[in-house]
Specification:
This protein has 252 residues and is of the alpha+beta class. Helices cover 55% and strands 20% of the residues. The termini are far apart. 22% of the residues are buried.
Length: 252
């Protein structure tokens, strides 16, 4: 009766205030993340205007400006992607597609980054067909592979495993890079959280929340295991009964 209504109302207001607090926190971090590269671009552009700036310094400043513009661009697209997936309640535009092929494409798209760090890939993947939204799931693989490259040491190794399981599909990516503490592992799926406050590794703390949200929409999961200095392992599961391409060929 009345007591139940009162309790529900109190629970609802406390939940709403929690969401509001998260929202103001999100806006604060969002503005900070935008301000930093803008201030950097502005500062180096002013330095370039000085008459006594040498050619070598100009080149350096231009490289920084270009890198900061790329950072702003990545931040903007991540925020747009996150707001887009936040507004989705029911997954649409799902098709059956070869997810392993999509993972291979993602690795190739990031080739410039891993070649620059002389990273070796060890890949063990079965060809698997799953039902899902290819555009959204592509962002999952791109973010996880990009992260593994980012946090790897030069000449490191990244291992990728993908296979069907008895109740769905499993993707696993392991790097032997800088790793993270247990506190960081608890918080990495929070928006704007960065385990490295010094910003020595690029990132805006939006990639992993995006990964988790996309997987939630697919009724999937993402988990992490890590040790500082020893690397990290991310495991993604997707439900359903994926059919391997080889099985399909036999059925035909």
């Amino acid at each position: 009766g009345f007591r139940e209504l009162s309790e529900n109302f109190n629970r609802m207001t406390s939940e709403l205030s929690g969401i509001e607090m998260l929202r103001s926190d999100f806006i604060h971090n969002f503005s900070h993340e935008f301000k930093t590269p803008i201030m950097s671009i502005s500062g180096f552009a002013k330095l370039m205007k000085k008459e006594n700036t040498g050619e070598k310094e100009r080149e350096e400043y231009l490289d920084i400006i270009i890198a900061e513009c790329a950072r702003l661009s990545e931040l903007s697209s991540n925020i747009l992607n996150l707001s887009r997936v936040d507004s989705i309640s029911v997954l649409t535009e799902t098709v059956q597609f070869n997810v392993s092929e999509q993972i291979r494409e993602s690795i190739l798209q990031l080739q410039q980054k891993w070649e620059a760090k002389k990273i070796t890939f060890r890949i063990q993947m079965d060809d698997c067909l799953i039902i899902g939204n290819p555009d959204l799931l592509k962002q999952v693989w791109m973010n996880l592979i990009d992260n593994a490259i980012k946090f790897s040491f030069p000449e490191g190794e990244i291992c990728i495993h993908a296979a069907e399981t008895h109740n769905g599909f499993l993707f696993r990516i392991r790097d032997n890079g800088i790793g993270m503490s247990s506190l960081t592992q608890e918080k990495i799926f929070n928006r704007f959280y960065q385990g490295d406050p010094s910003h020595s590794v690029e990132g805006n703390g939006l990639g992993l929340p995006l990964v988790r949200r996309i997987l939630e929409l697919h009724r999937g999961t993402v988990r992490v295991g890590s040790q500082p200095g020893k690397g990290s392992i991310f495991s993604v599961t997707l439900p359903g009964s994926p059919v391997s391409v080889s099985q399909l060929t036999i059925q035909r």
